[in-house]
Each structure stands twice: as structure tokens, then as C-alpha cells.
């Protein structure tokens, strides 16, 4: 796993996700299980880009479920609590907001991780 390649890939995907139409977001959402591990990357920018990707995916209800199934809530809440990088915190916050919008299952998952204290 090449950190530079991962950084470049995450950066490009975050730009795509930010401007994507719903059908592209739906395609990206099916890869949520590939993105979630990047939330544990050493590089803060990779974590920030990945949280941005997941925030955009979670803008749509089916995307919320994909991120939840991929195990995205625990690392997003952890990043939110850590507050170790402004961009990571900003994008993690957006991801949690989008995940929990009108979605009780995602809200419950955030509460189970202590997200209300973040």
C-alpha cells in the first residue's frame, strides 16, 4: 500500500465526490468498504479526503447505509473526538452530519460510539 498513491487517489476521489451527480455517488457508495480503512491512514490528508468522500456518499440515504455497513461510524467518531487536524475534524463532522440526517440507525451507531460527546 503506497502512501503517495493512496494520497493522490483519495484527493482525486474527494474532488469527484464533491461534484458528483447522484448516480456517481451511488457507484462510489458500493466501494465504501474500500474507503473506510483509509480513515486509519497515517497521513492526515488521506484521512481528511476519505472523510470528505464518505460525507458526500452519505448525502444520499442508500449511501448512509453503505457507509454504516462498511463500519464507517466508529473511525469517523474517533477522528471527530481526536480533533488532531482541522481538515480531518471538519470532514469527519460533515460525514457524521450526513450519516445521521433522518437516519435513526446511523444516529444509534454514533451514540453507541459516544459521538454525542465529540
Automatic annotation (TrEMBL):
PROSITE patterns: ARM_REPEAT. InterPro entries: ARM-like, ARM-type_fold, Armadillo. This is Armadillo repeat-containing protein 1. ARM repeats lie at residues 71-115.
Amino acid at each position: 500500500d503506497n502512501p503517495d498513491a493512496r494520497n493522490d487517489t483519495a484527493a482525486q476521489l474527494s474532488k469527484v465526490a464533491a461534484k458528483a451527480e447522484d448516480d456517481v455517488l451511488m457507484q462510489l457508495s458500493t466501494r465504501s468498504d474500500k474507503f473506510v480503512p483509509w480513515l486509519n491512514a497515517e497521513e492526515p490528508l488521506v484521512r481528511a479526503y476519505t472523510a470528505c468522500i464518505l460525507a458526500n456518499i452519505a448525502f444520499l440515504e442508500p449511501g448512509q447505509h453503505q457507509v454504516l455497513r462498511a463500519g464507517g461510524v466508529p473511525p469517523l467518531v474517533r477522528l471527530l473526538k481526536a480533533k488532531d487536524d482541522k481538515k480531518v475534524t471538519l470532514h469527519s463532522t460533515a460525514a457524521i452530519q450526513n450519516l445521521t440526517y433522518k437516519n435513526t440507525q446511523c444516529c444509534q451507531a454514533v451514540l453507541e460510539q459516544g459521538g454525542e460527546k465529540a
